[in-house]
Amino acid sequence: MCVDMKEQVVLITGVSRGFGLELTREYCQLGWRVFGVLRSKEGATRILSEFGEVFIPIVVDLRDDSAVKDIRLSLEAKTDSLSLLINNAGIGGTGHHIEDTSCSEIKELFDVHCCGAIRCIQAALPLLRKAERPTVVNVSSRVGSINKVSSGNLDHIPLSYGIRMAKAAQNMLSASLYRELKGTGIAVFAVHPGKIRTRMGSPDADMSAEQAAKRFVSWLPDIRLEREFGYFESGAEELVF
Ligand SMILES: NC(=O)c1ccc[n+]([C@@H]2O[C@H](COP(=O)([O-])OP(=O)(O)OC[C@H]3O[C@@H](n4cnc5c(N)ncnc54)[C@H](OP(=O)(O)O)[C@@H]3O)[C@@H](O)[C@H]2O)c1
């Protein structure tokens, strides 16, 4: 059965833990219907037992091209439109110096942060087009800012080449998507969610995933009223690409 067109519906990836899990908690509490992408059936059962039927798990690995069809079918079976897509799933990298950098690892990071986001956008676009104020958020990072890296602003943190390159490329995905969709009413944001104490968190992390999710969820509607594109730290400042 399809849901009421007025119900707010969000698709969030990487909901098994960290920022994605806390975003799921926030949107469920706000009464949204939440489709959550995660990789394990056990994780799906665990999250379903906490949130109940407002949460609809989609068990896929975003590195697989088959994820496009699986996500599309899961969405279409339960909703007529999608208000918000949050491409949050991510992996970290190792090797902070050029000599330690593994190109096969960099390909993995691009597959998740860039191609994984593209696969979700491909799956979700027909339903986003049917929503009232649709929004795509690609969860980026301050480390994807070429401006910050080249000016030395991030020299104090050990960062892999892979995560810096994958997030910079994902920012280009956001800019390109915005230009292609301009005029359709679909907003596109690249969002640094804060320095969060999660598995992917950096040594200078200063907030919990719960704090970061609350900050994001209260910030997004206001920025959505003002802008259709941008690179922001949620609840803080606009960033320079
Ligand atoms: N933590 C920070 O300070 C920080 C700062 C800036 C940006 N970010 C970004 O925020 C996002 C969330 O990160 P986090 O800090 O919450 O990290 P996290 O706790 O490590 O969570 C990452 C999530 O991504 C999922 N994932 C990884 N590969 C996947 C794949 N191939 N298919 C589907 N799901 C996959 C993981 O699922 P599994 O449980 O199956 O591995 C997990 O749910 C990432 O994009 C990260 O780059 C984080």
Question: What secondary-structure arrangement, pairings included, does this model have?
Answer:
Elements: E1 9-13, H1 18-29, E2 33-38, H2 41-51, E3 55-59, H3 67-78, E4 84-87, H4 103-128, E5 135-139, H5 146-151, H6 161-181, E6 187-192, H7 209-226, E7 229-233
Parallel strand pairs: 1-2, 1-4, 2-3, 4-5, 5-6, 6-7
Helix pairs in contact: 1-7, 3-4, 4-6
NADP nicotinamide-adenine-dinucleotide phosphate binds near residues 16, 116 and 200.
What would you say the CATH architecture is? 3-Layer(aba) Sandwich
Kindly provide the name of the CATH class: Alpha Beta
Structural class comes to: alpha/beta
- The count of helical stretches stands at 7
Question: What is the radius of gyration?
Answer: 17 Å
What characteristic shape results from the CA principal axes? globular
- Largest sheet: number of strands, sense, barrel closure: 7 strands, parallel
Please tell me the overall pLDDT. 96
Question: Which percent range describes the beta-strand content?
Answer: 5-15%
What strand line-up does the widest sheet have?
3-2-1-4-5-6-7
How many structurally independent domains? 1
Q: Tell me the number of strands.
A: 7
Unreliable residue runs: 1-5
Percent helix range: 40-55%
Ligands in the model, by name, code or SMILES, are: NADP nicotinamide-adenine-dinucleotide phosphate
Describe, in plain words, how this protein is organized in 3D.
The chain is α/β, with parallel strands linked by helices. It has one domain (9-233): NAD(P)-binding Rossmann-like Domain (Rossmann fold, 3-Layer(aba) Sandwich), CATH 3.40.50.720. Helix content is 44%, strand content 15%. The chain has 7 helices and 7 strands; from the N terminus they run βαβαβαβαβααβαβ. A 7-stranded parallel β-sheet has the order 3-2-1-4-5-6-7, sandwiched between helices. The longest helix has 26 residues, at 103-128. The chain is globular. The relative contact order is 0.14. The model is unreliable at 1-5 (pLDDT under 50). NADP nicotinamide-adenine-dinucleotide phosphate is lined by residues 13-14, 16-20, 37, 39, 61-63, 88-91, 112, 116, 139, 141, 192-193, 195-196, 198-202, 205.
